[in-house]
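Subject: mismatched residue count in predicted assembly?

I count 1988 residues in my input, but I want to confirm that the predicted structure covers every chain. Input:
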Amino acid sequence: MCGVFGVFNSKTPAEDTFYGLYSLQHRGQEAAGIVVAEYNKIKKKTLFKQHKGMGLVAEVFRDETVFERLGGYAAIGHNRYSTTGSASSASNIQPFSLTYRSGSLAIAHNGNLTNSRTLRRELTELGVIFQASSDTEIIPHLAARSREKEPIHQLYEALLQVQGAYSMVLLANNQMIAARDPYGFRPLALGKKVDPLTGELAYIVASETCAFDIIQAEYIRDIEPGEILLIDHLAVANEKPTSLFLPPSERKARCIFEYVYFARPDSFIFKHSVDKIRRNLGKNLARESSIQHQPGEKELTVVSVPDSSNTAALGFVRESIKMERPARFEHGLIRNHYVGRTFIQPGIHSRDIKVRSKYNIVRGVLLDRPIILVDDSIVRGTTAKMLIKLIREADPKAIHLHISSPPITNPCFYGMDFPTKRQLLTHMFDSLDNDEEEIEKIREYIGVDSLKYLSMQGLMNSVPSFEGETCSYCTACFSGDYPIEVSDATTDKDEND
Amino acid sequence: MCGVFGVFNSKTPAEDTFYGLYSLQHRGQEAAGIVVAEYNKIKKKTLFKQHKGMGLVAEVFRDETVFERLGGYAAIGHNRYSTTGSASSASNIQPFSLTYRSGSLAIAHNGNLTNSRTLRRELTELGVIFQASSDTEIIPHLAARSREKEPIHQLYEALLQVQGAYSMVLLANNQMIAARDPYGFRPLALGKKVDPLTGELAYIVASETCAFDIIQAEYIRDIEPGEILLIDHLAVANEKPTSLFLPPSERKARCIFEYVYFARPDSFIFKHSVDKIRRNLGKNLARESSIQHQPGEKELTVVSVPDSSNTAALGFVRESIKMERPARFEHGLIRNHYVGRTFIQPGIHSRDIKVRSKYNIVRGVLLDRPIILVDDSIVRGTTAKMLIKLIREADPKAIHLHISSPPITNPCFYGMDFPTKRQLLTHMFDSLDNDEEEIEKIREYIGVDSLKYLSMQGLMNSVPSFEGETCSYCTACFSGDYPIEVSDATTDKDEND
Amino acid sequence: MCGVFGVFNSKTPAEDTFYGLYSLQHRGQEAAGIVVAEYNKIKKKTLFKQHKGMGLVAEVFRDETVFERLGGYAAIGHNRYSTTGSASSASNIQPFSLTYRSGSLAIAHNGNLTNSRTLRRELTELGVIFQASSDTEIIPHLAARSREKEPIHQLYEALLQVQGAYSMVLLANNQMIAARDPYGFRPLALGKKVDPLTGELAYIVASETCAFDIIQAEYIRDIEPGEILLIDHLAVANEKPTSLFLPPSERKARCIFEYVYFARPDSFIFKHSVDKIRRNLGKNLARESSIQHQPGEKELTVVSVPDSSNTAALGFVRESIKMERPARFEHGLIRNHYVGRTFIQPGIHSRDIKVRSKYNIVRGVLLDRPIILVDDSIVRGTTAKMLIKLIREADPKAIHLHISSPPITNPCFYGMDFPTKRQLLTHMFDSLDNDEEEIEKIREYIGVDSLKYLSMQGLMNSVPSFEGETCSYCTACFSGDYPIEVSDATTDKDEND
Amino acid sequence: MCGVFGVFNSKTPAEDTFYGLYSLQHRGQEAAGIVVAEYNKIKKKTLFKQHKGMGLVAEVFRDETVFERLGGYAAIGHNRYSTTGSASSASNIQPFSLTYRSGSLAIAHNGNLTNSRTLRRELTELGVIFQASSDTEIIPHLAARSREKEPIHQLYEALLQVQGAYSMVLLANNQMIAARDPYGFRPLALGKKVDPLTGELAYIVASETCAFDIIQAEYIRDIEPGEILLIDHLAVANEKPTSLFLPPSERKARCIFEYVYFARPDSFIFKHSVDKIRRNLGKNLARESSIQHQPGEKELTVVSVPDSSNTAALGFVRESIKMERPARFEHGLIRNHYVGRTFIQPGIHSRDIKVRSKYNIVRGVLLDRPIILVDDSIVRGTTAKMLIKLIREADPKAIHLHISSPPITNPCFYGMDFPTKRQLLTHMFDSLDNDEEEIEKIREYIGVDSLKYLSMQGLMNSVPSFEGETCSYCTACFSGDYPIEVSDATTDKDEND
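Triage response: the counts match. Full output below for your records.
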């Protein structure tokens, strides 16, 4: 996963992008980069400048003089997710910047192409060279081979050929272009900001709306599935960006996992408040829960895994009360504020030092109580197992683990960094015949007194419906129902991991 | 403020100390250091090794080979709080390590001596040189001038001469010593851990018990006010450290602000759970609150400033419900996980970018609602003012700011890094004759609909009482009642800030 | 200018390349990189790994763990010359590494293509994208578009299309390829080394033979002009690399400036000892010199600008003695050993601090003496001017500046980093009608008592002749006689500088 | 060994000191620091600021903003020599800066105290603590214990108590003080510079006069043995620094090894040109040499080990010619310009990679010739042995190693970083009864055809004589004649090394 950001017609495009990327840091912690478009008075055209590096945004842009050097009037930026192995290379840091027939191009991309292997093979057969291992490089190659004159038409032609998930923002000479795949897998929002001094209008594009908030920009609308939006100086003057639309897909496939876990709760994703949907997940989880207060026991205590499941836990409590099965919300786990990329683990004390470094228990609110621990999801299960071990040290009466989403049973081929099927917790047990037995095995493995996942129905009841759509979400990781054929991507997955 | 940590008889003392300091990071982010005691087989005695640097613990100890180099069987460590100006110098990074008549000594100190200026003058008159500007350097000078033979007796003599607040841990050749001033201003706890492989016992000393949790050590008891505790190989063999006691002070003076804000909620401070006391503060604040639900308004919504006032806010809600003035707890503010020391603020967009970089609002839970914002304290007021401005963007019906402690009206001379009196928010208005008028001025300045501080009585009702003590806490910052005369320190304060 | 190095069938290819690049550091100080070919047992094929960075070789490879990570059995490396402006970007650091139809390719290149502008335009018209601004990227694009199957044949086809100067080494899957343009502008030598432990044979390719010496390899022969040499495991087994040859050029054009200044004196360049040729230059300069000892003056003292003109100065003295015009050789200038890339110049004391930081005078051997200062060349003239000013502080009787090459009157389009014509010292005065007048103007500008350049004839008499060649050298910078048409390159030059 | 520098009444004292230390880099490469005296307008007194770090001067002061921060009107600086083991610690980086009874003090010291162990014991008995392991810390302790009021008088009292070698420069509040021990072991020179813009006079103190040249300052005179020189604003106004003198020693003991090897040839040391004395050493070596040209052999070729023995080699050749035993001077060894601290040696190819990284041979001038290799001294012999092995690869007829100083047979206790007696090459063989036999063993070990050391008499004939002194030099390393009793220091040496 990744975060993308773009701004057009700002006095401080690099600074805006820095703050935007900073607020999107949760979407990718491995590397960050900014490409700026600046008008060069001598050459009388727009040229690009860039600064990229491995690490958090605040680390890559630690030196303030970088911003003086960058200047410009527009910029795009990218946060890359932490991946492992060969992919962790400097040549993969985005945005990619290049020159081609029509001038300069830079691209920042969030998503995963499902026909990348085929396209790559076809392109290399035509004599194309690839300097990075990322999917993203395919798109400028396709655009550069188009016979169209305008970058937006070249990109249109390119995107007709690619399949899969993409939300991207590009600089093409003196234009900014934003595009989202027809299925709408990944979010992409459009915002604007009026400079308080000059009254000039800047357009902004970002993966999540929290990036607008930090620079006091305003959320206008989403880039629609299949939309290719062009922002140039004319668009600014008319206050009207123009759009092309790719042929519509037969269905939509918004990533439901953005709502479940990935996006920030203060963002609007797919036009809706993430916080509100997480609350719904918690409420529906409460409705489905069978945990009852036992006579003689202390009050049922709902604890969230901070901060990602805070809102779901609150929703759970609220609904429980409504259902007259009262439970109290408690901060039973404390999250260390200083966890970061630089964290080393010398002389490993125990296998659970990673969990201990991130969380600690508040003994007073856990001791002797029946705990309903609300978490958003379980991927590999190793963290959950160690977290439960940590909580046990506070001697709770019981731990009932409630997950505000269904079991993850399938890998993602559209950008979410799930492991291969083999590494998913659910895989350990999937020779079993029925779900109940499988969940009992997982419960035992993790070491809790009971384990409850939200049902698929509960999940679907929690998310907004989009009028006129038969299918609005991608739920493949939970259901195995893949919106786009994945044979190509699967093989990739197997080879790379 | 600072954090101190020490461990004796461990196979991995530097690693233990690293994790301990990591969990105490909130007590000081400017610099960190570790001194290790290692037995040198050639010289047949214990020698010290050290590694120190500016920055967070995880930054200073980024290179794992440091731990291989350090080795040893005992270690002490120190986190220094971020201070400003001349004090931010490398020569002030603790622990201080030195050689003197009786061998090697290293010291890590949390606190502030109130007669440091006088002692410094007296010592320099005797020909002593000072290589750092910190108070701490005075103590080894006094110890080195003692005619006693044993380091612990030298330290005893030294501590008879100093006044003020100190919790410290030292290495003296092959011994570890922990000491706490007779008033007991700052916390200091004793723990132990049995090595799961060798069965060997290690003793641990730390500012807060959360440092025990991270390395799976067990909290035994506090170092008592006035206690000087000696841990050596004999103490380990007998499982019995030995103690000296300084002459008792006429009263105790535990820092009540540790409970209000400074310590981690998962720690036990002065033998009691911080989380529980913060909850009491919230409960008492609810009892004193006069905010009532207004007919036609949405439900009263309690929002905490994450994470420091989370528990107080929960306590507030719990008590409100009990009082039949129901209010709902909401996560209305989101704290950015990536805030850190390295954060720069290029091209300052607006004066409130610092607050925006740390917090964002969750619009859905704030819009049109009457908000009770619970915060732990207000020092300068600048952050509070900007936070309120940010919350206003979500269009709440009203903001009622509730502070879970009384107004801070006086500087601290015992280690808390409050600004001078002039810089405290309360000072702006203290020519006014009565408190009500002053609070109205503050309310107006911060820009809230109403402002409520917890009363002194409410504060005292929230904290544990210690049997047989007439006075247990230092409340000077709230009350001006200074346990130790401060003429010397005051002057220092004026000159340094 | 740049340095290239490659090694095939070594146990320590990255280390070998590190030492090779270290000894070729004078050919490029701005950036360095190594690409290693390693057999991946899981994927059952050779994969590439790389490490690149800005700075000196010893800075880029400061961390020894890099070598553990790199591993492999073959490697190529590159030193990039310090250039200014937009070119100083991380995306230009070589070797370039990429994947294409036939697998993996990496390339390290020394030289300059003269039809790069045309080729770039043609390629972009075909839809090719360029990610760097360097000429080098053109070559893999051309190779990738070839329909040939074998990388060496693809490269052959590519090189048929490019014009200009190139000496390059490539990794293509499990092969190493070295190539040199038909004119032979830049040097490229072939060496070998037998592993003292295993007896295995490694082949080595390097810009200069000094790179063989440092790793105790043996110089076999030059890569011939127009030769494309293939080294693979078969070549190693047979002790016989195979070669293709590009169509021969009508003449050769070995860069004579490599002999004059650029190469290390301990290298063999174009099969001949650089030291010996520099001595010839000094001897011929002595023969042409008209400086006579004046009665009453102290002995004529020959001083070199260390270390580049040391050998020429020795040759000058030797020949002078033979001609019975005795002169003594003296170390009148001391070169600071610590001059390096990291050198900053705070608070510029005077315009000549750069020269003062690099050289100091030995007053005793200069005072009151007539000095013959031997230098190899003058490019811009600013350093020479300041150096003379420095020497004047020692109060010599006179300074006779003797240059062991003719005046540089024309820019280089084949890789030497000369400035544009406008910036050459000779340009300042080239409206003058005859050379004598021009040299008088230069003498005055630099501030010496007399100025003597070596004649073109003297230069040609100093360098070896190659049998059967009508023209063996490129002397364009001195003569304006460009071996390859330069219209394309000229324009480039004008635009970039 | 170390380099010291100080400047008083400059507009750019930190920059001056940077350049001074840069030119003194050869005196110490391990660490560097600068302390600046700046007038603080608010506190109305001079305060000190500092910047110190491990590494070369250009590395420690890589960030130009440091100079903006430092400011001030006076500064002192220090280069520390690379030492091994425990001493390589950050707490030992000079200048030391401290506060004491009379205000602020900073000290930069070159030398070694011979009674440091006794003084340290006495001081610790009095309750003094030591924060570094360096001798230097003793001096401010002694000064601070003086009852005198003026820093110069305090320092006078302190220096009466110390024995050994010291050349030092101090800042004491608004004064600069320079001091040199009565024996005059280490050099220390006084210079001045008139600001070209303001006409203001600055005084400068430096270990060597090459530090004056780089900033265009003028050498006035040496700080005399036993002199303590005070420079303050009054001294500047009167153009007359004032001096105190310590009681004279019965003899002088200028370090003769400064002339032989350590100092830069362009410096004046002890009032005389180092270059000239090195030439004398070469001349006297020629007079003592018995190598004759053999019939049928090529011309005798004199090669220096660059750059340290260049001048001696030239003197050797000059004298040989005068003696009608002609020999030609050749640059047979090339010194790599990029050798530096950062140089790592991955995957050690052979034991001689260190020598190969620093030097390479010029085959043409060595092949088949009888070589007289002139070197300044042999300490351990390991480098010489490997260098000879390298030269042998060029197949010289013979190698006659000539050393321009006598055998080093004794360790230095006055600051030169020689190894212990056990590690000196001469020690390997000193059970032998006569010198000839010993030299034969060394010759064999190093692997040369003949080995010749300059005689003690030859050495003494080469250095200037000082009128009225019975003994002017310390020759202890050659002769064992120690000017100051060394029992205390010896023990130190044994223990530390």
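The mean pLDDT of chain B is 92. Marking this ticket as 'not a bug'.
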